[in-house]
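Re: Re: ligand-bound prediction request (bumping)

Still looking for help on this. To restate: I need the protein modeled with pyridoxal-5'-phosphate bound, output as structure tokens. Inputs repeated here so nobody has to scroll up.
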Amino acid sequence: MSDAPIAISAVQIGAAEEALVLEVLRSGHLVQGPMVERLEATFRERCGTAHAVAVSSGTTALVAALEVLGIGPGDEVITSPFTFVATLNAILATGATVRFADIEARDFTIRPDEVEARCGPRTRAVVPVHLYGQPAAMDTICEIARARGLAIVEDAAQAIGATVGDRPVGSFGTGCFSLYATKNVTTGEGGMVTTDDDEVADRIRLLRNQGMRDRYDYAVPGHNWRLTDLQAALGIPQMEHLDRIIAARVANADRLDAGLGDVPGITLPFRAPGRTHVFHQYTIRVGPDARCTRDELAAHLARAGIGSGVYYPRLVHDYGCYRDRPDVVVDPTPIAAAISAEVLSLPVHPGLGACEIDRIVDAVRDALAR
Ligand SMILES: *Cc1c(COP(=O)(O)O)cnc(C)c1O
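Reply:
Sorry for the wait, this slipped through. Here it is.
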């Protein structure tokens, strides 16, 4: 059995990606060209939306979605305190005020009743985060949003291909995806906005290219949010094989589940009924009854050559730069606070086979079950 290091994530780029990138290089059309359109088509198809608009990153996708929905100063946006910092930064970039809804302990996504409790006269939007590839409770969140007239901006950065019932994430409101290097589908850097709303799509298309409607005819002051065709070319084969990518992640998660199910003191990832988990991360909780702490387990794995990650070690607003800001309202979220001290993500990416997964299982059992 090999004892090569096992990384928490690995980029998988093959001959198909290389061939398409070379095609772009030889075509001379490097930006916002046919490859970008092809990548957009794969997202339309996958998400079942009328539109998919490629932008330069997942963060840009969130900012663009919120901006075209008219979110700005004086508005409140509710999101999860247990997310990557980009979710928070994107909301702040619009000038809106952020409020936080606590999360469901089992699936790590925002609780609909908590969203409801944070709603007030200024609330304009909710940003559920499909954390680790597990969709949030979109059915109930959609009901609340409809009743209150809120926009839904899904942070689906980690969840391309996940579904709720028979609906793909990204189809419940305005969907925001990241194509960053570690995500399930990557173009290095990149992002995508999905929507059924013609006007939202049109406005983002305008804003991403300096507000230019026709050559040197500017309709609005815009930005440069463009994606290159070199980047888009990388993503196309991965989107075409997305089912295979997800199946490999789920198979690895199944094998981790089978090997770790009886380890005392840890909680394995929960798969919410009716919501498919695409396992961007396989995240366990190391509880107070476990034989060692979360950080000790991570150190033990590191000694065995196995990478792991803490996503995320603190609540997203729990940093000096967000303290004492009137636009960051620190609502109490005790469940999220407790969970951030317990989570540890184990490698689950498609580059791993049964042997590597068994090594991870053995190393975890070594620390906690022997
Ligand atoms: C990666 C990520 C983002 C930001 O995407 P970038 O492409 O890195 O800008 C936003 N939200 C979540 C939950 C993410 O994981």
